[in-house]
């Protein structure tokens, strides 16, 4: 059952890097412009303002943004929709792995 104060599980960007080999569902909730400027390969851009309309067959969803604030908001929305959500702490600011797009 959903509780407003339910703690959203979170992982570090380093833990995320390990999980990427497992073909996970990674949502990048930044704006399309931010996403184009550089994102993690395989991530799907679903801006925060469109997250309520998102649906997937995946049970577990990982969420990332620039700093971790928007992904936390998006995680709460997805949690209410019944997904198992994992927030990526620190967001792209903490990501040191390869990115695609951007300069």
UniProtKB/TrEMBL annotation:
It comes from the Bacteria. InterPro entries: GlpE_sulfurtransferase, Rhodanese-like_dom, Rhodanese-like_dom_sf. Residues 20-100 form the Rhodanese domain. This is Rhodanese-like domain-containing protein. It comes from Ligilactobacillus ubinensis. The lineage of its organism: Bacteria, Bacillati, Bacillota, Bacilli, Lactobacillales.
């Amino acid at each position: 059952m959903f509780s407003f104060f339910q703690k959203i599980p979170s992982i570090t960007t380093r833990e995320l890097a390990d999980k990427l080999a497992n073909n996970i569902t990674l949502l990048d909730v930044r704006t399309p412009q931010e996403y184009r400027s550089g994102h993690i390969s395989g991530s799907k851009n679903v801006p925060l303002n469109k997250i309520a309309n998102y649906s997937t067959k995946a049970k577990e969803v990982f969420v990332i943004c620039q700093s971790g604030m928007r992904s936390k908001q998006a995680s709460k929305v997805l949690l209410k929709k019944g997904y198992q959500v994992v927030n990526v702490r620190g967001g792209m600011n903490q990501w040191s792995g390869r990115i695609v797009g951007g300069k």
